[in-house]
Each structure stands twice: as C-alpha cells, then as structure tokens.
C-alpha cells in the first residue's frame, strides 16, 4: 500500500518545492513508483522538472474541479518511475471556486482515489498558505512532511501549522500524522541555526528527521535546468542529502 | 505628501518582511515619520519588532473589517519615528470575509485615508500570495517595491506579479507604479546569482535598485531580538544595505 505525503509549511521559501521534487526523485531513483502532485499555483514543481507552462494540459486545477480524471493529468518525467500531475496559474481560481463546491475539502482526496495501489509514494507540493489548496492536500494525505529553515520567522509559524493539522485530524482526516520535520538550507556554523535546531529537537523529539539538508547551490541551480539534483549533479551534497532523506522516510514506513 | 509603498512578491521567503522592517526603520532613523503596516496573517513584521501575539489589540484585521479606526491600531515602537499597525492570525479570516463586503479591494485604502498627511512613508508588508490581502495593499499603495532573490523560482514568478500589477492599474488603482526591484540575500560569488541579476537588469532597466542586500546572518538574527538590524547591529552589512536602500528610495521620490 502506498503512502500520500503532503509537503507543507505556510512559511514562504523554506524549501517545500525543493524537498518535494528531490524527495520524489530519490524515491524513483530507488526504483519505487512515485507520483508528484503540484498543488501550488506558482507551479514551481512543474517548471522545476522542465515542463513549460501550458494551461490546456490537464492539471491539478482540473482534478479539483472535476474537469479531468487523474489518468488524463499524469505526465511521465525524465526518471522512469517518477510521474507528475502539473499545475498552472489557473489554480489560483480554485481557492474561490472551491468555496461553493460540495465536499470542497475532499476534492483532491476523491480525485486521488485508488492511487495508493499504483504508486508506493505520492508527494504533494503545497503553496505558502493555509488555504483551501493546502487544506485539500492535508485531507488527502496520510502524513505531512514539514520543511523548516532554522531561523526565527520559520519557528514562529510552526505552532500555527500544528494547530491546523490537529484541527484537520479532529474533523476531516483522523488518520493524518506528522511524517517528520526536516531542516533545510541548514548551516551548522551559525549560532542561530544551532539554537533553533536545539529548540526543534526539544519540541519534536524523534519526529525531527535525522537527515538535515545543507545549503547547497546545486539545489538552487538544478531547477533552471529542469532537473532534480540527482540528475543535475548526483555527487552534490544537496542530492546526497535528499537520497538520505528518502531512505529515512522509506525506513519509517517499513515499521508501520 | 507621504508615499505608500507596498512590499510584495507572491514568491515565498524572498525577504519581504525583512525589507519592510529594515527599510521602514531606516526611514525612521533618518528622522522621517514612518508607518509600517503588517498585512500578513503570519505577522512576522509584528513579532520581528518585538510585539507579542495579542488578538485583542486592534490590528489590520479590524481595520479591514471596519471594527477599528486607524488611530486605535497604531502602536509606537523602539524607534521614535517608526509606528506599527500589527497583525494577528485572525487576518486569515479576512480573505473569506472580505469577499462578500462592499468595496472589498478598497478596504485598506479607505482605512488609510489621510495617512499621507501624517507620515512621509507608509510601508505595507504583504503575504506570499496574490490574495485579497495583497490586492488591498496594491490598491492602497502609490508604489510597489519587489524584493527578489536571484534564483530560478523567484524569476519564474515575476511575470505573474507584473501581470497582476498591470491589471490593478487598469481598474482599481491607475496611479500604481513599480517603485523598484531589490535583490535580496544576494551572493555575487555564484554564477546563478550573476545570471539572474543580468536578466533582471535587462528586463527592469533602471527600476532595478542600485542597492543590493547581501546575505547577512545579522538580518536573520535581529528579529529574534525583536529589533530591526540597525538597532541590533548597525555596523552589519545587512543594516548598512537597508540604510542605503532607504536613501535610494528617498532620492527617487525627491524628483517626482
Ligand atoms: N538546501 C538548499 N540550498 C540552497 N538553496 C536552496 C535549498 N533549498 C531551496 N533552495 C532555494 O531556495 C529558494 C526557496 O526554496 P523553495 O522554492 O523550494 O521553497 P518553497 O518553500 O517551495 O517556497 P514557496 O513558499 O514560494 O513555495 C529556491 O530558490 C530554491 O532553489
Ligand atoms: N539578506 C538576508 N540575509 C540573511 N537572511 C535573510 C536576509 N533576508 C531575509 N533573511 C532571512 O530569510 C528568511 C526569509 O525572509 P523573510 O521572512 O523576510 O521573507 P518573506 O518574503 O517575508 O517570507 P514570506 O513569504 O513567508 O512572507 C527569514 O528567516 C529571514 O530572517
Ligand atoms: Mg514552493
Ligand atoms: Mg513575510
């Protein structure tokens, strides 16, 4: 049985897209069938994998509004076992259009029905907001992976995200668990990073991933070539960190 | 006559809050009466200036819904000429509540009526979305300052932001201009940064600010002490960059 993992944090620029792309690519490189769904109207996951903007190609917006079935929206990528549901800026409209719709928080969950039989991992990239798109992802997901920068503003927003997750667990998705918190762009040389990491360790215990992702320019360069880091520069510290993170996430699942 | 500057970019984590706080503080340090308005439910501008969370204190949400007048919401800060309208997580509700309201895009503009006579600069910190909160800020503003990281995903989102600004200029706020684009967390040693900066220069011409803000750990540390960088470490490269940016913005206005 597959697992649906939402990559979410309303704080902007913490590495959600970079984590979604590179984690999914690392699963696929380990010969594990993986689906990546771009739930952000910015569609950085889509362009980060080299797909040009194309509003007519079926995308996440069409899934949510019921205008296309899942199979019509799934695209192959350069990695044999990695598949993508792209997004487009039309997804901005979904936040307003979904408000009036029936089962508005379950639209993604319903659209992904049966997907766990075909993919071992489904990774959902979320926008920087606790809006109806992120809500849909958290209702569809089994677990949520929280990328965090070890900085003050990022720390500030964690309690709000955890409140939201707790509220969703009470009503919309009782099975939702925290997959883990992963430190991104981590520079162990700064005091600030060490202090924040210590606070997170205190707060999250073993939910804080053992793998940390260092700041590594290769991770920022790879999307401009339309490739995950392991296809752009597999020996880079960034690519290696995400391969380790994928192993850690796969091992967590094995025991449950 | 004062000027209202919205600091906006839907891309997350590009330095909107860091720019809003430190630009406003630099204006105030130059003995210029300045008002800073936190339009983001994350309320990082509010906590970055040392204000604790307090849902009962009048804030931007109350301004937008008409529950409080501007004077009731304005708070003094550590800098004599810097004043703050704080925000709170209740502001998330405004995105839905404003939809049904009359003049929903003009709520902030109306609430700030007369503010240009009392403050030379009013700086609006926006959330990482092109939502009704950012829309309200762009309708209230005279100009928009766009913080940009010199990275691929940040470049991707610029055309969408410019489309939005053009649409607002056609209908809701014909006087809206681009104040400038300021490169943040800039590391001139990387090829990626140089390539993106060259593309931005091509695209924006003299709208690209001469001042760039380097990556500087002091800027990330300052908010955990509740202070702008110039009160935390005035000799730091980060504080100096924002003092230069304030001078550049003040000089631009002088000629108009
Ligand atoms: N470990 C890293 N090292 C260096 N650069 C990184 C790293 N992780 C992400 N980046 C870069 O930092 C920027 C922010 O990352 P990213 O866009 O993945 O964050 P995000 O949380 O998805 O942002 P948003 O909130 O806008 O969706 C991007 O330009 C990305 O290329
Ligand atoms: N020039 C800089 N040097 C080092 N760190 C910086 C710099 N500018 C911002 N930061 C840090 O980078 C992170 C992102 O900046 P900031 O929160 O200001 O961006 P933002 O655009 O307001 O994010 P959001 O989209 O969530 O509102 C913060 O932790 C901040 O402290
Ligand atoms: Mg993203
Ligand atoms: Mg901000």
Write a structural description.
Two copies of one chain form a homodimer. Chain A is of the alpha/beta class and 256 residues long. The first copy, chain A, contains twelve helices and seven strands. The first copy, chain A, has a seven-stranded mixed beta sheet, sandwiched between helices. In chain A, a hairpin with a 5-residue loop joins strand 3 and strand 4. The longest helix of chain A has 20 residues, at 152-171. At the A-B interface, helix 2, helix 5, helix 8 and helix 10 of A face helix 2, helix 8 and helix 10 of B. The complex binds adenosine-5'-triphosphate (2 copies) and magnesium ion (2 copies). Residues 16-17, 40, 44 of chain A line the site of one magnesium ion (MG).
Write the layout of secondary structure elements.
Two copies of one chain form a homodimer.
Chain A: E1 3-7, H1 16-29, E2 34-38, H2 44-48, H3 60-65, H4 70-73, E3 75-76, E4 82-85, H5 92-97, H6 107-111, E5 121-125, H7 132-140, E6 143-149, H8 152-171, E7 177-184, H9 191-204, H10 217-221, H11 229-232, H12 237-255
Parallel strand pairs in A: 1-5, 1-6, 2-4, 2-5, 6-7
Antiparallel strand pairs in A: 3-4
Helix pairs in contact in A: 1-12
Main features:
homodimer; 256 residues; alpha/beta; 12 helices; 14% strand; binds adenosine-5'-triphosphate; binds magnesium ion
The spatial strand order of the largest sheet of chain A comes to 3-4-2-5-1-6-7
Largest sheet of chain A: 7 strands, mixed
Can you list the ligands bound to this structure? Answer: adenosine-5'-triphosphate, magnesium ion
What's the number of helices of chain A?
Answer: 12
Strand proportion of chain A, as a percent range, falls in: 5-15%
Radius of gyration of chain A: 17 Å
Kindly state the number of beta strands of chain A.
Answer: 7
Series of H and E elements of chain A: EHEHHHEEHHEHEHEHHHH
Largest interface: chains, residues each: A-B, 35 and 35 residues
Shape of chain A: globular
Helix content of chain A: 40-55%
Structural class of chain A: alpha/beta
- Identify low-pLDDT runs of chain A: none
Q: What's the quaternary structure here?
A: homodimer
Q: Give the rounded overall mean pLDDT of chain A.
A: 96
Cα end-to-end separation of chain A: 11 Å
């Amino acid at each position: 049985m597959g697992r649906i993992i939402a990559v979410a944090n309303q704080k902007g620029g913490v590495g959600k897209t970079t984590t979604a792309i590179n984690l999914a690519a690392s699963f696929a490189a380990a010969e594990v069938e993986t689906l990546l769904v771009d739930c952000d109207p910015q569609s950085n996951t889509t362009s980060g994998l080299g797909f040009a903007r194309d509003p007519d190609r079926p995308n996440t917006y069409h899934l949510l509004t019921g205008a296309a079935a899942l199979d019509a929206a799934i695209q192959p990528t350069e990695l044999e076992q990695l598949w993508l549901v792209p997004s487009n800026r039309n997804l901005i409209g979904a936040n307003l259009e979904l408000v009036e719709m029936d089962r508005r928080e379950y639209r993604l969950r319903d659209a992904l029905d049966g997907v766990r039989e075909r993919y071992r991992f489904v990774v959902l990239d979320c926008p920087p907001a606790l809006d109806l798109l992120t809500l849909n992802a958290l209702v569809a997901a089994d677990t949520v992976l929280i990328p965090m920068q070890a900085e003050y503003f990022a720390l500030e927003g964690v309690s709000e995200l955890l409140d939201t997750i707790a509220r969703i667990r009470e009503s919309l998705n009782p099975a939702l668990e925290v997959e883990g918190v992963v430190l991104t762009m981590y520079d162990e040389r700064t005091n600030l990073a060490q202090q924040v990491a210590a606070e997170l360790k205190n707060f999250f215990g073993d939910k804080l991933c053992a793998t940390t992702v260092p700041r590594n320019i290769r991770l920022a360069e790879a999307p401009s070539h339309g490739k995950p880091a392991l296809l752009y520069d597999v020996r880079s510290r960034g690519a290696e960190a995400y391969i380790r993170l994928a192993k850690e996430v796969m091992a967590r699942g094995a025991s449950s």
